[in-house]
Design a protein that fits this description.
The structure is a homodimer of 292-residue chains. With 292 residues, chain A is α/β, with parallel strands linked by helices. The first copy, chain A, is built from eleven helices and ten strands. In chain A, the strands form two sheets. Chain A has a six-stranded parallel beta sheet, sandwiched between helices. In chain A, helix 3 links the parallel strand 3 and strand 4. The first copy, chain A, starts with 7 loop residues before the first strand and ends with a strand. Residues 115-121 and 123-133 of chain A have low confidence and may be disordered. The interface between A and B is medium-sized, with 26 and 26 residues.
Chain lengths: 292, 292
């Protein structure tokens, strides 16, 4: 067991959305102390350039390091897409983005969920289909303009499996819709259809929810994509990956003392508390303003 | 004529939306040199606190002062709501927000446009209605969360006319809808109805478009509010006010040399150029990145 295991897990996001990652981590690692930084004074990152987002991400990590963390999770997809490599070069602490876990999840879940090739009708002379491993998997990534334009998911998927067919759809209205609380609203469903119809028409095995806000739209997206498409929740996958990584490095907290959850925001705490409590379904306490 | 008249007009906004103000100023003052700063690295201001927005606004003014300006227009409604007074205290240069011109416009246009009191049916014993000046004007302000929560428009309206009935509706989805290019889309119309139906049911004389993006939704809003409600465009009103103020102070540029239009953005110019060109309906040239 490492002497660092008593330290907190640091999580940062551009704002409120990363609370979906926070929630999954707190579920799967209920003993861990968590410290969350939401860069609400500069949110969103999704429409901003790689250079700007990387600059902000470095400042966020510097702040979390002062809070004595043992590992940092980049909950924001855009920051993961643009900045994780730069962060890993700059800092020695383990830093985990949401892209790689999401990609691993899509290949696992999407591959498993994809319907078996239907048997040819008896009497047919078709050759037997190749086994399911060589069947071309169709994965769609949805996210912010920045995440999709970066093609970070596409590149990461192709590094693991060059045969996968990947499409990307930017859904810029989803974040404001979630923050408005319109998770299962009729209008939200129409907007989702508008964004996704074309992709769905081409057939799909899995859809990666490539933005921290999107897990809250899961039931609406389920209606739009139908039952046969696997929805891959990066937040869940990242929490699982965080647990595995801590375990492997002997960094899991052993204490049975009640863990602390602390929140820092770069804008005033009011809106974060209000919208964040709605997102988490519980009142957010312990939110402090900080300038970084 | 002041020796400062050769200087530029400075305009700043949280991002792209202020280009609607820029456009109106360039129409009404075609001889003026204009310098526009869009704080795209920190956009939007509409969900951020007064303290944070004021801090950003002060930095924006400092930047524009180095560009040798003679007057500064705060194109952003949220910054106007939160920061104009602080800016006017901090700096000696004339600084104009969009709230006061919008309010003056609403009282002028809304008052003029409000339908005459219908004549009572003959044979009725009702007393004659008081003259139109004492009729209570109903004005609705639409804007970002920050602008509406600040009640800046309500206060400014009541300073001029305490009898006006003012309602405010935050329409957080309008900015992303405009930036998505969905100006006259069926979904946008539904969302507008969702936000505004209740207010419209109570009756309305004028609606102030209290966010720089909203003039682009004018034709959709016209369908939603009907023909009898005056739509007050803060951008137009502010441009008119800018011209009056320059004239009064002898600051109008006299040169017949072709004016220059320069744009600075705090994030990379790419998205600003792309979305901004769509908003203005012409290609934006001369956009430079700057860190402030």
């Amino acid at each position: 067991l490492s002497e660092l295991s008593h330290r907190s897990i640091g999580i940062f996001d551009s704002g409120i959305g990363g609370l979906t990652v926070f929630r999954e981590i707190s579920k799967i690692l209920p003993r861990e102390d968590l410290v969350y930084l939401g860069d609400t004074a500069r949110v969103p990152y999704g429409t901003k350039s790689a250079a700007t987002v990387t600059r902000y991400a470095i400042q966020n990590v510097r702040f979390l390091l002062k809070e004595d963390v043992k590992l940092i999770v980049v909950a924001c997809n855009t920051a993961s897409a643009f900045a994780v490599e730069a962060l890993q070069k700059e800092f020695s602490i383990p830093i985990l983005g949401v892209i790689e876990p999401g990609v691993a999840g899509a290949l696992r879940i999407g591959g498993a969920a994809s319907p078996d090739t239907p048997k040819p009708p008896s009497g047919s002379f078709e050759l037997a289909k190749p086994d399911s491993h060589s069947r071309q998997l169709k994965i769609c990534v949805i996210g912010t303009e920045g995440t999709i334009a970066s093609e970070a998911y596409t590149k990461a998927l192709h590094r693991r499996d060059p045969s996968v067919r990947v499409s990307g759809v930017a859904c810029p209205l989803f974040v404001p819709l979630v923050e408005e609380g319109w998770w299962e609203n009729e209008i939200t469903q129409q907007i989702a259809r508008h964004y996704l119809n074309e992709t769905l028409d081409r057939g799909l095995d899995a859809m990666i929810l490539g933005c921290t806000h999107y897990p809250l739209l899961k039931s609406t997206l389920r209606k739009v994509v139908g039952e046969r498409v696997a929805l891959v929740d990066s937040a869940e996958e990242t929490a699982r990956e965080t647990a595995l990584l801590l375990d492997k490095r002997g960094l899991l907290r052993e204490s049975s003392a009640r863990p602390t959850h602390r929140f820092f925001v770069t804008d005033s705490p009011e809106r974060f508390q209000r919208v964040g409590s709605m997102l988490l379904g519980e009142t957010l306490l312990n939110v402090r303003h900080v300038e970084i």
